[in-house]
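Consider the tokenized backbone below.
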């Protein structure tokens, strides 16, 4: 799976390498969650089955979610509002928008995905909530969750997604993936 990060805003400096690594981590977590929940839904109750599923999930991810590439587009209110208006018919800025795209004829096999992240909104909300890096990671996790089929149309779906995404962020923090999501600022001499 190829991860591309395109920074289309210029006011803020997220660390694109760290975001690409975090996107890969979240996509694998999202795919694992989806695969396990589908399998456990049909085979509830057996601890042996649960253990076997966990051990075999990684092998199945490639066939269950054959991502050829995922692009993460970093934008701001001015950049995401037209995308929201054109594709979702909402006349406002938002935090994250995702698209799942079919493979191009003659191109590489696998599905492509696009996640548009509003960096400006992440900084504003992060300042209000106390941590802009966590807010940006939450938007990225939410986009990855949507790419693997999760929906947030109902309150229960929203709660389920948020619990899952916060769990992924906690695991990412334990694995050392949350540090340095914002690039160090250079002064005008450096």
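A designed sequence for it:
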């Amino acid at each position: 799976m190829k991860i591309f990060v395109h920074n289309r805003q210029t006011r803020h400096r997220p660390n694109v390498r760290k975001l690409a690594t975090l996107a890969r981590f979240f996509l694998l977590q999202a795919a694992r969650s989806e695969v396990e929940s589908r399998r456990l839904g049909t085979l509830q109750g057996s601890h042996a089955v649960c253990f076997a599923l966990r051990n075999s999930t990684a092998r199945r991810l490639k066939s269950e979610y054959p991502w050829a590439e995922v692009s993460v587009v970093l934008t701001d209110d001015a950049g995401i509002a037209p995308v929201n208006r054109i594709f979702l018919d909402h006349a406002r800025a938002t935090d994250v928008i995702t698209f799942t795209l079919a493979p191009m004829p003659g191109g590489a096999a696998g599905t492509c995905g696009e996640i548009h992240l509003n960096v400006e909104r992440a900084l504003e909300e992060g300042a209000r909530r106390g941590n802009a890096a966590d807010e940006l990671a939450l938007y990225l996790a939410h986009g990855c969750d949507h790419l693997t089929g999760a929906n947030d149309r109902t309150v229960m779906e929203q709660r389920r997604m948020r619990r899952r995404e916060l769990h992924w962020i906690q695991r990412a923090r334990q694995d050392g993936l949350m540090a340095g999501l914002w690039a160090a600022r250079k002064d005008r001499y450096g």
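Residues 40-63 have pLDDT under 50 and may be disordered.
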